[in-house]
Amino acid sequence: MSGEALLEIRGLSKHYSAVKAVSAFDVRMESGKIYGLIGTNGAGKTTVINMISGLEKPNSGSILFEGSEISGQAPETIARRGIARTFQNLRLFSTMTVLDNVLVAAQIDRTYSIFSAVIKSPKYRREDMVETTWAMKLLEMLELSQYGAAVSSSLPYGHQRRLEIARALATRPKLLLLDEPAAGMNPQESADLMTIIRRIRDELSITILLIEHDMKVVMGVCEYIYAMTFGEIIDQGAPEDIVKSQKVIEAYLGGASKRANAQ
Description:
By secondary structure, the chain is of the alpha/beta class. The protein folds into 2 domains: 1-82 and 173-263, P-loop containing nucleotide triphosphate hydrolases (Rossmann fold, 3-Layer(aba) Sandwich); 91-172, P-loop containing nucleotide triphosphate hydrolases (Rossmann fold), CATH 3.40.50.300. The protein has 10 helices and 10 strands. The strands form 2 sheets. Strands 6-7-8-3-9-10 form a 6-stranded mixed beta sheet, with helices on both faces. Helix 3 packs across helix 5, helix 3 packs parallel to helix 6 (157-169) and helix 5 (122-141) crosses helix 6. The N and C termini lie far apart (42 Å). The relative contact order is 0.17. Mean pLDDT is 89; it is low at 255-263.
């Protein structure tokens, strides 16, 4: 990787008392690419995402986004700078419609006041039209446009997963963090998700960091992969290199063997 970095993480560490969740973590990501972050359960992947998005503060190290330090900043500040994320567990507004779920996020950069919204001023109407058009475009991209008026909790599970991605995209991010987006999906839903992830990158020109246990999804969409275990990067490279990495194979199979022997 030799282009200009969109995100650069240097020596990132996070510990909870004596437990080291992440240690000496280094990552460099360029614009417009799809990256994967893989590892066994408890490797520290979600902790990394939490620190990038501001939900947790690192104990040491730095996170540079477009060359500026963002580590320790509030989640809303980081979101406004252009980083959005999804979660392992769905966090939709279950009683709101599909369209309204996306519109809530699309209002992150609104400039009209509450009073303007109440009286529906010309400025409010202009921005509302822009937000609605953008939200509908995202629902179409995620193949959810026909469900716009439906209550989000009524959607099939796989569609709810896609809706969470649409809501994250509504903030117009430059970097999208996807935390196990294929979790709970059947094989066809996972295949459809891969197509959608590529379309998001291609049509919106954004960078994607994907955490995922489904290796078919990881190998199918990621262009560069970081492999973790016990809070540290053990290898990195193109998918075809990672799948042959002895360090990665040992970490995965070794972990499986230890679990089998413990049962």
